[in-house]
Amino acid sequence: MSNAAVHARHIALARCERAAGEAFGFADAAAEDAIRSVRATLVTPTTLALATFATALAATITYLV
């Protein structure tokens, strides 16, 4: 595919994605705010510490079993 075709396909997919989001009631601004809040929650030090602990616990249980 040429660069122009790839770019046109990308634009078409973005338009379809935006239209689908609007059809289900998600505006662009609302979606961006929701994504930011989820990212902020997933990157907090407490969340990372809990994920590390859960992984270590799962690995230990797997090793022992």
Give a short overview:
This protein has helices at 3-23, 28-42, 45-64. The protein is mainly α and 65 residues long.
How would you describe the overall organization of this protein?
- By secondary structure, this protein is mostly helical.
- The protein has one domain.
- It has 3 helices and no strands.
- The protein has helices spanning 3-23, 28-42, 45-64.
- The longest helix is centred in the N-terminal third of the chain and has 21 residues, at 3-23.
- Keywords: Membrane, Transmembrane, Transmembrane helix.
- The chain crosses the membrane at residues 42-64.
Instruction: Report the β-strand fraction as a percent range.
Output: under 5%
Overall outline? elongated
Low-confidence stretches: none
Query: How many domains?
Result: 1
> How many helices in DSSP terms?
3
Main sheet, how many strands, which sense, barrel? none
Keywords: Membrane, Transmembrane, Transmembrane helix
